[in-house]
Amino acid sequence: SYTKIGNKVTVWVFVNLDAVVSFGTGNVIVATLPFASTSTSPYRSAISIGYAKNWAETPSGGTISNNTNVIYLRKRNSASALDSLVNIVQVGNMNATSEIILTATYMTDA
In 10 A of CB 44, how many CB atoms? Predict the structure, then answer.
């Protein structure tokens, strides 16, 4: 679900995998957000993950690049909370029972 007030959008996402036949390869993304993020470069978006279960490498956060409607889930370089979220989580880190709950707030031009 989402709420849009002016040009600020907040989305709440719950993903619960069930009965997956096979996984592809590549980046784990949450696609088709309700609005594209702003094209203005100083604005960046961060994602807060409140819950994640059954991941080989658990996402620690995420990002939304400018002028896109996609969340990239990211992980830390190590177990240290001081490391930055530089690595994008790969599909191979998921399994048939992976779950995640996240919240994202971002700016839009719409």
Answer: 13
Taking only the tens place, the pLDDT of each residue in 37-73 is: 999 867 678 799 999 999 998 899 999 989 999 999 9
What single letter denotes the amino acid at residue 18? Answer: D
Helix, strand, coil content of the chain in percent (nearest 5) = 5, 40, 55
C-alpha distances out from residue 89 to 5, 6, 59, Å: 30, 31, 6
Strand 87-88 to strand 8-16: parallel, antiparallel, or no bridges (unpaired)? unpaired
Cβ atoms within 10 Å of 96's Cβ, excluding its own: 12
* pLDDT score for 81: 63
Measured CA distances, 13 to 8, 60, 100 (Å): 17, 15, 8
Distance separating alpha carbons of residues 108 and 95, to the nearest angstrom: 33
pTM: 0.86
Whole-number Å distance between alpha carbons of 29 and 73: 6
